[in-house]
Amino acid sequence: MRVLCGASLLLACAGAVAGCPPGATDRAALDALRRAEWKLVDDGRRQALAIELLDCLQSPDPALRDDLAFAAISRWSRDRQLAPATLQTIRATLTARLAPGSADPSGFARPFAALALTEVARADRMAPFLSADERADLVRVGTAYLHSVRDYRGFDAREGWRHGVAHGADLMLQLSLNPALDRAQLDALLAALAAQVMPDGHFYIYGEGDRLMAPVFYIGRRGALSSEDWSAWFAALAAKRTTPDVPTQASLAARHDLAAFLLPLYASLKEQGTAEMQARMLPAVTAALKTLD
Questions:
Q1: 65/169 Cα distance (integer angstroms)
Q2: Phi and psi based region of residue 126 (left: phi greater than 0; alpha: psi -120 to 50; beta: remaining)
Q3: pLDDT tens-digit readout, 68-81
Q4: Distance between CA 1 and CA 19 in Å, rounded?
Q5: The dihedral sign for the CA sequence 158, 76, 46, 91
Q6: What residues pair up with 156 in beta bridges, in sequence order?
Q7: What tens digit of pLDDT does each residue of 68-123 get?
Q8: Mind giving me the DSSP string for 227-288?
Q9: CA dist list (Å): 230 to 148, 194, 199, 237, 263
């Protein structure tokens, strides 16, 4: 029989049983912990619960998945309350979920694995704990995942968010900010992002363009790519869009999605970009925007 712990007993509960909610707690206790702003004095219990909650990232219940599991992991990670060993377990568990062919019948496991891995990438950026090989593997797994997304569902009133492209882009953002990444790894991020700017025949309506452009902006801030590099990258991106004499759903979607990517990037460069970024990137972005005419 699964042991259910009331809110007042949460700190005393120990052990774990697979499933969601974890076998050592219950929904009411998790709700109470959320209301307490995820304050959990028992460090050992916090580490264990963070790992136990990984099953809930696959839950079809949006409250368990988003408001409880992801919220707890994100809060503890950002408050630096998760030990490197815990973060390593989270990394290993979730990168396995992103492996090609991994089961995800309801479409939540992979997007939320990518989203939670953003917290691992951020924690490593703030206080490095991954080896170079482990970080390279996170880049490889993350970019392969973003390339592979074909489920473009965003929000559902009953089931909540899937948002696979946006979550993949968020992982690219955290990786792009890490100074340990080299030029080849930045190029891998850019290739994955470019692959999803204009998915075939799909109109983005949930802010995906903004999420995709953010890591491109921050890669630009690093100064690793020259103006010639950016001109080639944006020209290749714009060239992916076909312009038939008679518009089709696919051609209209591509124009819509390219604009939804380029316009916020242009605005970000104008408003927040340094003079050096503007000199390197704005001519290429402007040229790509002109192809939308």
A1: 19
A2: alpha
A3: 999 999 999 999 99
A4: 13
A5: positive
A6: 160
A7: 999 999 999 999 999 999 999 999 999 999 999 898 999 999 999 999 999 999 99
A8: HHHHHHHHHHHHHT----SS--HHHHHHHHHHHHHHHHHHHHHHHH--HHHHHHHHHHHHHH
A9: 24, 12, 21, 10, 16
Identify the residue whose tokens are 């492996």.
Answer: 99
What residues form DSSP beta bridges with 160?
156
Q: Amino acid identity of 221?
A: R
- Compute the radius of gyration of the chain from its Cα atoms: 21
Phi and psi torsions of 40, nearest 5°: -135, 105
pLDDT band at 9 (very low <50, low <70, confident <90, very high): very low
Which CA distances in Å does 167 have to 137, 162, 202, 212, 279?
18, 8, 17, 9, 30
Query: 177 has which bridge partners?
Result: none
Question: Which tokens in the block code for residue 100?
Answer: 């090609």
